[in-house]
Amino acid sequence: MFKINNLILYDFNDNKYTYDFSCGVNYIRGSNSTGKTEFYKFMDYMLGSSDDVFQKPWFKGTLQYATMEIYIDGISYVLHRTEDINKNYIYYYGEKPKEVL
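Above: the chain sequence. Below: its structure as tokens.
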């Protein structure tokens, strides 16, 4: 089983923005031009897309890093992505980042 538990965005002012996901189907709804597609693109980036969202005008200089907690076959992992490709990690939930992806 695969599940996304949460997505946490950290800005440069030490603010934290958390999106929690439920079991089953989750969807994002809103009016046109409110960022739904960009949110999906960011989730894709967190899961390994090479599209560098940190270079997009609406992300550039706004996020320090982001983490996504995922659950796969009974084990929780954390994906940690930054603008710096040398500081992207995956690690077990509850551990600290150790090795670069």
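The radius of gyration is 14 Å.
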